[in-house]
Fold these 2 entries.
Entry 1:
Amino acid sequence: MQTADVTEELARRVVAAAGRALDVELTPEQALIQASPREGVDYQGNLAMSLGKRLGRPPREVAALIAGALELGDIAGAPEIAGPGFLNFVLRKEWLEARIAGLLGDPRLGVPETPRPRRIALDYSSPNVAKEMHAGHLRTTVIGDALARLLRFAGHEVLPHNHLGDWGTPFGMLIEHLADVPAGQRAIADLDAFYRAARQKFDSDEAFATRARERVVLLQSGDEETLAVWRELVAESTRHFNAVYDLLGVSLTDKDIYGESFYNPYLAAVVEDLEKAGLTEVSDGAVCVFPEGFRNRDGDRLPLIVRKRDGGYGYAATDLATVRYWTAERGATDLLYVVGAPQAQHFAMLFAVCRAAGWLTGHAEHIAFGTVLGADGKTMRTRAGETVKLADLLTEAVDQAAAVVAERSELDSAGQAEVARAVGIGAVKYADLSGDRERDYVFAWDRMLAKEGNTSVYLQYAHARTQSLLRKAGGQPGGTQILLDAPAERALALKLLRFGEALKAATDGYAPHKLCTYLYETAVTFSRFFEECPVLKAASPELRASRLRLTTLTARTLALGLSLLGIEAPERL
Ligand code: ARG
């Protein structure tokens, strides 16, 4: 399937023309082609300004030479040269019509698969055992899931791994606390309450604290009885996490769990390798690596602690083993970590050490995200001042969505309950995905469930409207003829052709919000089309069929786009 990407198509031709006219070699990106914000212009090329500077020639003259050498075939007429040297393109109607018609039979809507598939290890969700998932885990789970979908759709192989915090000193007290409950009655109703109770016993009961410390040693030495209780604890926690994943419609399963404990067998070799490479130093009894370029405010070098003074291994050591495992043993070409922004330095140091050790030669990136804030602008808390549990938050989302849907639904109550889930969960996810991920965002029900504006509810309504229109028309028509005479039809067609570009920007930049923005613009463009262009009562049968085809393509674009964000598009709301 040929790409539907107009930007790319124009860029290729502009680059070729610049080569012929000016003897310069440019990449397609350097053609600086973009959709034009100007009325009556579809695309513009902005390369003449920088090229003029580089060649020491007036930009308008450069633009004219490129225009003269351009071979656009039937795509567009000769570009107009505007302002300081913009090349303004107006696409030919017939070409546009043929392009849109070409999308009708294409399940990928003109989006090509990458010619260079990569094998991407993607760390996301990664909650901690014996603790409830909170709003921060919502972000990593939702963003990670969207990235997994986007990357797979682009043709990459994605290896998800859920880096559960399932190891370390607190497990002594947690296991001991669970072991105090008779076997067979160890279901944990509330993970946070369980954790608090263990901590309280540890702080107040000296004998318990001693037993807890001994448990850590037993756990680390692989004592079978201890491991059995530990496994129960992990299983109880995983049950809670899976309930959240289910509610969210996130595909993580038990086979994606690669908790901290998984890397235990590799830790000794990690230290050994680093020592052999001459990278370690002993500082305060701990084995450390001081990667170059990392210093604190006082100018002291910062250590990545590989082995603690007591011989134990911590978070950093495990992450070193993680990198080594996914590159060396699993052949990952890319390592992505969807983790909150506060861990930026940890990952920067980790990558630096792994590169120095030779474990990391490909791409590694910390996909950072900001904090979820409450209405008061502070980290979101319950009224009682506790962190908000993700499960409670999602249940409330569905309840709130049910009220919104009930306001104007054509469905019976069972149908409404079903879409409430799609709408509520979609709203939470979309609110998280639609902003630049590195920024904090304020969690506000009324805003995320608004029927107007850049929300998933708005997109879901737009999609449902397309479905209702197609139902009234008795289904989508066969044939492929597309007619684009009205300005609103043309605008919609231009938007539909930009789906691939939006996906590419969202995927390459790990920036789902770019897809959100595109989908929103598409829905707005469709609604203008819907207002200005009668569909069922179009002036001719051909026009009616063409408009129904545009409606079908809009529906498919919205549904596919939403699905790549992990959001459902119900047929009716
Ligand atoms: N469990 C950690 C937390 O909840 C996140 C782990 C992220 N992944 C990693 N490989 N360090 O903060």
Note: The longest helix spans residues 224-248.
Entry 2:
Amino acid sequence: MTEPKRLFEQVNDYANRADPYPLYAEMRKTPIIRQDDGSYIVSSYRLIKQLQHDPRISVDIRKRPPSDLRGQRAREMSSRGRPVPFLRLDPPEHDHIRRLVTRQFGPPHSPDMIDSMRGELAQLVHELIDRFQGRSRIDIVDDFAYPFPVSVICRLLGVPREDEARFHVWADALVASLDPLPQATGDQQEMGAEQAALEISQYMGELIAEHREHPGSDMLSRLITDYSPEGPLAPADLVVTSVLLLIAGHETTVNLIANSTLTLLRHPDVLERLRSDPELVIPFVEEVLRFEPPVQFNGQRTAIADITLDGVTIPQGSPVILMLAAANRDPERFPDPERFIPDRQDNEHFGFGDGIHYCFGAPLARLEVQIALNALVRRVIEPRLVIDPPPYRQNALLRGPRHLLIDITGIR
Ligand code: HEM
């Protein structure tokens, strides 16, 4: 039996990456755990729900205690005028930027951008599957899931096709630095990410200037030309927001496609059902978001006042981590939580978070993954898992396979 305060350390131990779920079950027995470093780990559905709606919980890194290194760096950057992405802002700044960006995304303020991308998404997916022709082994991550979301964000932002390859390189460098454990993020990776951030910011600055001259129907053009009383966003905010969309929508979507494919191959009966019933993909993807969520826990938040829950006080200034994946299997919320039920009803999971920071890209992510999976099950003949469990990425927060090798008989 692991001591409760050692459980989070265990979750971050790579040895447990393939199956962290028994650790989450152990955690839920002490739904608020204080660790030796003064941080708090929360793991029950009810308490996480409560905290995601509690204004005393801040996502703003600048509000971390003076001793926190990332907090210090964020305050320094901010004082030099670098804007904070809205994922890391509290109200009212968060709400202002999110509202402006949401306006461009779809009804009631503008045409449904996501739905209008349906054809383009399908085309991207089919192009990737066409490349499986003549091969007997493919890697679902490298050959399929990985290239897809970056291309989608580029289309959304109106990045010309010939520049897409550069976005793939930048996205790789930025995502590599996202590991929540500082020791897992080497100096070299941090520098690679800094360099990528610099390059992409410069590129986006130029693209914004170009779109200002010649606006198109893409999201960036809409943001630039929003002359509503609140708009448009300041140029620096535009750059930071575009980069946020790229990072937030990249590895998360890769992992959802890979986790979904792995789950399908582990449940051949579900794969068969999906082949004959394309509509099943809608509840199926929701169940993967509950059962194998790409975001296992939230990035560190800070209590900005004392918060007392179930008799435990989290003191002001404490780091707080919300274990979304543990809540998703909480038996007090979900009947039979350890079972994968592809058409589960009443599935209000935390796969996209909750509260004011609920995933901005959820409608796009859902559509991308639904289209990808339906195309995959229909076109790939006799897919078989080569290694189970597959090798996972290092990252415990953004969890997913590094490779997912499957043997196939062909494509149709
Ligand atoms: C926020 C998951 C795809 C943009 C979040 C959060 C989660 C999440 C859990 C909440 C984070 C928190 O509370 O700290 C996912 C998953 C995805 C996905 C699992 C894919 C399967 C996308 C895409 C985009 C996107 C495609 C961009 C188009 C964002 C943004 C936020 C966010 C901007 C911050 C929202 C805010 O702070 O108001 N996402 N996401 N995500 N996501 Fe996603």
Note: The mean pLDDT is 92.
